[in-house]
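Dear support,

I submitted the protein below through the web form. The confirmation email said the job was done, but the results page showed an empty box. After a refresh the structure appeared. I'm attaching both so you can tell me whether what I see now is the final result or a partial one.
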Amino acid sequence: MTKRPNRKKRSKITILLLAPVIALTFIVGWSLYWIGSKQQKQTQATTPKIHGEQDPVHLMVIPAQEEQTITNN
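What the results page shows now:
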C-alpha cells in the first residue's frame, strides 16, 4: 500500500478552511457562557428569601369517585 500525495494537501486545506469556523464557534460559546454566569450572579443577589410568616402550600390527592349502582327495592 502506498500513500497518495494528495492526501496531505487535502488535510491541510480542510484544516485551513475549518480553523476560522472552529475559532468563531469557540468565541461565541465562551461569550455566551461568560454572559450567562455574569447574569446568574446578579439574579442570585436580588432573590427575596421566603419568610416563615407566609402560608405554606398544601398538596392534596382527590380520590376518584367509585361508580354506584342505583337499585329500586
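Response: this is the final, complete result; the empty box was a page-load delay. The longest helix spans residues 6-46.
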